[in-house]
Write a structure and sequence with these properties.
The chain has four helices and no strands. The protein is mainly alpha-helical. Helix 1 crosses helix 3. The longest helix is centred in the first third of the chain and has 14 residues. The chain starts with 8 loop residues before the first helix and ends in a 14-residue tail after the last helix.
């Protein structure tokens, strides 16, 4: 996980923190190398101890998309599929 180039950066960072702690590095050394706080280290260490690798993944999956946002995106996509109102050249044509 710590060497991955395809995983999310947050997961990789948390894995590096855990590996540094496992190697015997102090909180102070980990804070300096990973540019994080003591609270960050303690939180992810605790989650790792309780849940192992599954504990390194964030629990929040992002903001819930509202109906208004979905409607707005649909209107924008619909507008991009219509011919220009001024009769200019349509670049979508083959």
């Amino acid at each position: 996980m710590a060497a991955s180039r395809t995983m999310k950066a947050g997961v990789v960072r948390r894995a590096k923190v855990i590996l540094r702690l496992a190697a015997g590095q102090s909180y102070r050394a980990v804070m300096k190398q990973e540019s994080c706080s003591q609270v960050f280290i303690a939180r992810w260490k605790e989650r790792f101890v309780k849940e192992r690798l599954a504990g390194l993944y964030a629990r929040h999956r992002g903001k819930i998309v509202s109906e208004a946002t979905i409607g707005q995106e649909a209107r924008i996509l619909k507008a991009t599929k219509q011919a220009p109102p001024d009769g200019s050249v349509d670049l979508r044509a083959p």
